[in-house]
Sequence to fold (128 residues):
Amino acid sequence: CFPEAPTSIEEWQYFTRTPLWEKGVNVAAFSGESLAASVLVFWEPDSHSGSTEYVFTRRDYRGHGLARFLLAESLRYLKDHGLRQALLEVKAENRSALGIYIELGYEVVAESNVYIATLPALSDRLSV
Fold:
């Protein structure tokens, strides 16, 4: 979803150790022993909405429909567990991902802006 800021293995491992992961599953595709694509799916207790996170397809495996297939399986998994909605976030400029999500029934319900402050410049502005 955010190709310019890929998730590190440490972030992924941390996430799978959080309480949210108790109701989670990793839906993945392999080529032999090599991971080709993956989607993490989870939901919070007492929630009617599930979330899909860390959607990715390794560069060598893109263009074969793996992300679409894994997301469809993820949606099926959430529905089979009684959830009524699936949430995800994607950068608006990521048109290929957005197209897949819309094809699978996701709708854009909100857009947001992200602001970044470069800390040395910020500290210079704060000096009196």
Q: What stands out?
A: The radius of gyration is 17 Å. The chain is about 30% helix and 25% strand. Strands lie at 25-31, 34-43, 49-57, 85-87.
